[in-house]
Amino acid sequence: MKSIIFDVDGTLLSTESMYITALAETLKDHKITRSDAELHHVFGLPGPESLEYLKIPNPELIQADWIARLDDFRDSIFLYPEVLNMLEQLKKGQYKMGIVTSNTPAEFAAHHDRFGIEQFFTDFVFAGMTKNMKPASDPILLAMNNLVSDPSQTIYIGDSIHDMQAAHNAGIAYGMAGWGVKDRTVFKDQADYIFETPNDLVEWAKQ
């Protein structure tokens, strides 16, 4: 039986505007300047790693303020078109389905519960549940263990280079969620599959 493991931000839900706008406003409050390109580059990374990459001073303070600002932009989150139908169809197909995300459990609940997507999954791996996070293999390996997945029958669906690296480090295929990817050049044609729409993934799973 195929196992399909999903990233969340930029894959199931569009959350980039919330995270990046909140970060930009937080940095502005602290009179710190970073380019839009730099900010968008860290989307999908855990907060501490994002701030480390951006070389932000006083990262613990900035992290706390950033999290506090997220509520101001939460209304910008939306479920990508066709995603709900995709999840319903995959659930009917009785595929093993899990989530591996850089969100903490609290962040996931705050940002995603109102969309009701948690009902489609039997396993969740959140930030802090493994020693290393994406792009290391640890979170995906934990999900595979929990789902009792065969690596040759498992795919990780995501939207970032970090997602692809994590999948390949775990020895499984990576499927690009094309509907959530803005710049495909960073993948250097190394994605195993490219799904232009959520329905494309459903059709692939049936094969």
UniProtKB/TrEMBL annotation:
GO BP annotation list: DNA repair
This protein's UniProt keywords: Hydrolase
A Pfam family of this chain: HAD_2
Assigned GO CC terms: cytosol
GO molecular function: phosphoglycolate phosphatase activity
NCBIfam families for the chain: HAD-SF-IA-v1, HAD-SF-IA-v3
Identification of the protein by name: HAD family hydrolase
Native organism: Weissella koreensis
